[in-house]
Design a protein that fits this description.
About 20% of the residues are buried. The chain has helices at about 1-10, 15-80, 95-105, 140-150, 155-185, 190-215; strands at about 90-95, 110-115, 125-130. The protein is mainly α.
Length: about 220
């Protein structure tokens, strides 16, 4: 019994406490470093995905703006020529000055093949319309990728809500673009005009949302 107490009294408590303290500090440092590294990686991932989304929105803006300008021109051509089409045909009845103004304003819309004078001032112009429809390919790859890898989990609520709303509106526009392509393929001019009129309402709204997103996306944190 005496030897036991003698051995116990000879234990180096300072050394033991020092080892425990070092172990405690080491564990906490490892946890802190791991958290710091994860936070750093999260910031880098967020920065990368924001750049990708910005590039995607910028490219979509350019494509949609170009399409909007051309398709608005096409809508105006339908509207202006409609006043001169003979009933539901592709024949145009107009004076030479009126026809010259139409073809000058919309040089590719109506290709004349022949004309016949029908009275002192008007001619009947035979030909056909050529519809050059601009169909933009609006991408959402960057946004889908960001969601699939949970890269948006550090975005604040307002940012997520605005981006989700933007891409939902983009999906609506893409759906109408696909309908326009289908109507063009079926040679359904009436349906195409209705779709283009609807697109002329949606597209400016989406372009405006693109602009706002580019202005605010750097604050997605």
């Amino acid at each position: 019994m005496g030897r036991f107490f003698k051995l116990k009294n000879n234990l180096n408590w300072k050394y033991i406490l020092g080892e425990v303290l070092l172990l405690f500090v080491g564990i906490n440092l490892a946890i802190w470093f791991n958290n710091w590294n994860s936070s750093k990686q999260s910031i880098q991932d967020r920065h990368t995905i924001i750049l990708k989304i910005k590039d995607e929105i910028t490219n979509n803006t350019k494509a949609l703006t170009l399409a909007q300008n051309k398709n608005t021109q096409l809508t105006n051509a339908f509207k202006d020529f409609n006043a001169y089409f003979e009933e539901n045909s592709s024949r145009v009845i107009a004076t030479p000055k009126e026809f010259e103004l139409l073809t000058k304003t919309y040089p590719t819309f109506f290709k004349v093949k022949d004309s016949v004078k029908i009275n002192e001032t008007q001619y009947r112009y035979f030909g056909g319309t050529t519809i050059e429809l601009e169909l933009p390919d609006l991408s959402r790859i960057a946004w889908n990728t960001a969601q699939s890898i949970d890269a948006t989990n550090t975005f604040n609520y307002d940012c997520l809500y605005n981006l989700e709303s933007l891409y939902n509106l983009q999906d609506r526009v893409t759906n109408e673009i696909n309908k326009a392509a289908d109507a063009l393929q079926k040679d359904d001019a009436k349906q195409l005009k209705r779709i283009l009129n609807f697109l002329n309402q949606l597209s400016p709204q989406l372009i405006n949302n693109y602009t706002n997103a580019l202005s605010n996306i750097d604050r997605c944190k």
